[in-house]
Amino acid sequence: MTAFHEFELIQWIRSQGGVSHSNLLGIGDDTAILKPPANSELLLATDMLMEGAHFTFPPATPELAGRKALAVNLSDIAAMGGTPHSALVSLALPRSKGPEFAKAVMQGIMDLAAEFETQLAGGDTNSWDGPLVINVAIIGIADQSQAIQRSGAQPGDWIFVTGTLGGSLDSHHLTFQPRVREAATLRDTVTIKSMIDVSDGLASDLQHILTESGVGAVIQSRQIPISHNVSPDLTDAKRLQKALSDGEDFELLFTVSPEEGQRLRDQNPLAIPLTHIGEITAGQGALLQQADGSTTSLENTGWKHQL
Amino acid sequence: MTAFHEFELIQWIRSQGGVSHSNLLGIGDDTAILKPPANSELLLATDMLMEGAHFTFPPATPELAGRKALAVNLSDIAAMGGTPHSALVSLALPRSKGPEFAKAVMQGIMDLAAEFETQLAGGDTNSWDGPLVINVAIIGIADQSQAIQRSGAQPGDWIFVTGTLGGSLDSHHLTFQPRVREAATLRDTVTIKSMIDVSDGLASDLQHILTESGVGAVIQSRQIPISHNVSPDLTDAKRLQKALSDGEDFELLFTVSPEEGQRLRDQNPLAIPLTHIGEITAGQGALLQQADGSTTSLENTGWKHQL
């Protein structure tokens, strides 16, 4: 194998072209330099994915692992109603796998970055005897005071979720589409009061909105849009539980006023399902209401990162 | 051991207080929200440190590993003449080491962040069966068009380096002071034409300035400030070579006009050594000039990340 150094990988990345924003000086200095657009706010997030924890080879490929590392960050920008702008990529590469593996990981990142007009602003590449670790830090842009937070839900708000839920870990988690465009369409159609992306599971992520907003919620169990990734062989109760708590769906969970909720229900502006699943209440915690009207506590059954 | 989850570590981090900038909404939503100061530019960089590659336990402690992960990023901001503002921290924590280890890593980060008025804006904590991996993405601020790039060196410029060089890997690399304040003092005293931090070794990092600026350089071998970390038992030639190529010094290497260089040499505005080591030339590549006037090529002997 030809000797292959960090500098050469960086040269290869630069030679690939890719998105280039006029207000960003990217790879090539100690830092990137971003001139923020007037009247804008910057959205900043980061996610680290580790081989063996967030993906395994197979079913993942190096391209899909790279793709996912950017996709989860794009999903965070979507959840704020923002526009992705640029990303910083750090890699810990397994030394044994060589330069083609490194390029494949970067290719997966760069292809998705191109799709979402995200410039590769910089990064850090390393190799070691451990498994693949990918960290992406993302920069998004929102109009001043227009970023959509978790804290804006109000009693009476209708709760919506995009797409369908459950069973993502069987493979969807490697190929999901971050809901950047859907968030933009929704943002331009209605006033979104609060929003989060469903990464840990609906039950868990809804709780973040409730806690930050100081409100409660009632969710209608029969309204939960269960994904075709959830096996039809399971009991209805088990299927519902998976939709509520599997995580890694990366759909948008948001609230709007009842009037605007009605508009969304009458005419879905998206090309994917959009489901009214419940209401925000003045109480605390979340209740799950069955078809017969009885309620149970929507336990916080989502994925928790056990340290 | 009590069950310990990501959410609880985040709560602990939030409970520690720390730096809080009025223009940044930090931990607690899908992304942080930064309102950029008027007439400013943002500096963006990232570095990933892996146990076994960038540090080992011992001599490192979890606090020192965390400290270093932020320090190398602060050094990048210093190299642009910027002011650190905020940081995003991602952790892959060895599951076997438990919550106290996680807190110790964060403590090392937070203590240095406080020292450099850097807000912890967000992050991602994970655990796995692998070694510790820490990624920091940093956001710095520079006045509009005032960020100091590698590309501004001109023939005739004097080349300076802060501090002393060599032998850092014997322990200095865990405890070095990022030269943020020194860069600010220099920036306010003279016009810095080009600058970089010495992470890979002077020979290697100087080459980045030369390449990006399209110039050459002559370095005076007897002017190189050799650190007391370099063993006095080595030959003079070996000691010089270590100072030129060891890396991990995180000192500042920069160029100024001869007039301003004279001022810096007459009166060092810093509390640390500041050494005039050579000049920028109109040629290509770097020459090392011996005391007798003879020159050799300053080979690119710096650390290269072999993938």
Compact overview of the structure:
Chain A is of the alpha+beta class and 307 residues long. Chain A is built from eight helices and 13 strands. In chain A, the strands form three sheets. In chain A, strands 8-10-7-11-9-12-13 form a seven-stranded mixed beta sheet, sandwiched between helices. In chain A, strands 3-6-4-5 form a four-stranded mixed beta sheet.
Percent of residues in beta strands of chain A:
25-35%
**Mean of residue pLDDT values of chain A:** 93
Number of helical runs of chain A? 8
**Assembly category:** homodimer
Question: What does this molecule look like?
Answer:
- 2 copies of one chain form a homodimer.
- In chain A, helix 3 links the parallel strand 4 and strand 5 (119-128).
- A 7-stranded mixed sheet of chain A has the order 8-10-7-11-9-12-13, sandwiched between helices. A 4-stranded mixed sheet of chain A has the order 3-6-4-5. In chain A, strands 1-2 form a two-stranded antiparallel sheet.
- The first copy, chain A, is globular and about 65 Å long.
- The two termini of chain A are 38 Å apart.
- The model of chain A has no long low-confidence stretch (mean pLDDT 93).
- Chain A has helices at 6-15, 62-79, 98-115, 172-175, 180-189, 202-213, 236-245, 258-266; strands spanning 24-25, 32-34, 40-50, 83-94, 119-128, 133-143, 158-162, 194-197, 216-220, 252-256, 274-281, 285-289, 295-297.
- In chain A, helix 2 packs parallel to helix 3 and helix 2 runs parallel beside helix 5 (180-189).
- Chain A has 8 helices and 13 strands.
- The first copy, chain A, is of the alpha+beta class and 307 residues long.
- The first copy, chain A, folds into 2 domains: 33-143, 60s Ribosomal Protein L30, Chain: A (2-Layer Sandwich); 150-297, PurM-like C-terminal domain (Phosphoribosyl-aminoimidazole Synthetase, Chain A, domain 2, Alpha-Beta Complex).
- At the A-B interface, helix 1, strand 2, strand 3, helix 2 and strand 4 of A face helix 1, strand 2, strand 3, helix 2 and strand 4 of B.
- Strand 2 (32-34) of chain A pairs antiparallel with strand 3 of chain B.
